[in-house]
Design goal:
Layout lengths: L1 E6 L4 E9 L6 E10 L6 H19 L3 E5 L7 H20 L3 E5 L21 E4 L2 E4 L8
Parallel strand pairs: 1-4, 4-5
Antiparallel strand pairs: 1-2, 2-3, 6-7
Helix pairs in contact: 1-2
Length: 143
């Protein structure tokens, strides 16, 4: 199974794609990256860029499923609302592509990168990429 993981953000939305051996023992990192957004752009144009970016990733890498981070409880309601809107766009894109969707809680504080991308089960994924072992923490996103 090939899984697209999404770490939604209103300024940077991280993503990564892993593929499993089918037995849940080994995972390979296929590709990862980020959709960087201009803070000077309107929020609606940022949402459109996220949508188009995720659509491109799905079309090119053909995942079977999507794991998306739930919104953490932020102290600023405006930030929480914006993250909810970004999640909504990501969920819509995944649903439109007929992907199986799993939602998970962030393991970080929500103050920055660091949430790990779990597989569709309950454990954190450890991957073997072409260049060796990689932890799929979005704190090591490719820019």
């Amino acid at each position: 199974m090939r899984v697209l993981g999404i770490d939604p953000g209103s300024e940077t939305t991280g993503w990564g794609v892993v593929e499993g051996d089918g037995e849940g023992h080994k995972y390979w990192l296929i590709e990862f990256g980020a959709i960087k957004l201009s803070t000077s752009a309107t929020f609606s144009s940022r949402l459109l860029k996220i949508s188009r970016g995720l659509e491109e990733v799905i079309t090119r890498l053909k995942p079977d499923a999507c794991a998306i981070e739930e919104v953490f409880h932020a102290t600023n309601p405006k930030v929480t609302l914006k993250l909810g809107q970004v999640r909504g766009v990501a969920l819509l894109v995944a649903e439109s592509a007929a992907l199986e969707i799993a939602e998970y809680s962030a393991s970080g504080s929500g103050d920055g990168p660091g949430a790990t991308l779990p597989d569709l089960g309950s454990r954190t994924t450890r991957c073997r990429g072409r260049s060796g072992s990689r932890d799929l923490s979005f704190s090591s996103r490719r820019n």
